[in-house]
Amino acid sequence: DSARFLTMIDLPESGLALLREAGEVTHGKDVGGNAALPELAASGDYDVIVCALDQTFDAVTLERAQLKGIANYAVGYNNIDVDAATAAGIRVGNTPDVLTAATADIALLLILGVTRRAYEGERMMRAGQFTGWAPDLLVGKDVAGATLGLAGFGRIGRAVAERALAFGMQVVFAPRPPAHREVSAAELGDLAGRVEQVRWEEMVERADILSLHVPLTEDTRHLVDADVLARMKRGSVLINTARGPVVDESALVEALRSGHLFGAGLDVFEDEPAMAAGLAELDNVMVLPHLGSATRNTRDEMAVLTARNAIAMATGGDIPACVNPA
Ligand code: GLV
Ligand code: GLV
Q1: ipTM entry
Q2: Does some domain include residue 83?
Q3: Residues 70, 146: one domain?
Q4: Is the preceding omega at residue 178 within 30 degrees of 0, hence cis?
């Protein structure tokens, strides 16, 4: 019996080739697409479904599902009700590590882009409005000496810390906000003595730049709401490369419009791919279409890891990256 894979996304060839070697591959778009997902999952025709953030596996779908596993082509897996999957005996895989550097790079790009007003300058150039160097043209903020607050201190948060230190930023972090977790010096490894652990509330008030690196869970939904935005320093910057719903985007629009925040850099949106009303009209925001992991090499590695996860789920081997091990 060869393994049966259903892929709901256009998995890069590096991963697709592995799936084809291991079994039969059906493309979701040939059998009804996302609208048919609950039926496809329940059909018993597939061992593993390969998917990404656009495919939602809720408790109702998972209770009826006849699957061995779900291989998510992403590190975040808020699109899958993992408790319901576990209860149904369905393994869930994701793609940690391979996208850490690429995503941390995008966070730095947004930090630099917003503080140095790169997007405003880019737009000015294209509009033919650059009339020559001037002492006060698009004057921004230094990152050296600025306090960067990292919400969450997992793989990506740490990679952002390393980069920020190289730019001369002071790095404070709050693991697992809004709750707390003590990170030991041993666990900090190379970062010990170079970064400071603080409480979430303190970090919100100290950070010149607040960057989000938490998974989306019930605890982190609207972690940054109107109250938190009001407690952030006047003239500070918010960066989100995590998940849109971690921020109350309408409240953010207000905080940007009023000038309380200097700016924001966003790679993710609350109601992706849409943006909150008013966001696109603001000058002091740099927005990207969820490009965190978007390099050729990273996407190829994600595809290989996704395929390895899927194959192990189908054949009963060790799953390289499983978020709900048996
Ligand atoms: C992308 O957002 C991911 O979680 O990999
Ligand atoms: C991860 O280490 C976290 O506590 O955020």
Answers
A1: 0.67
A2: yes
A3: no
A4: yes
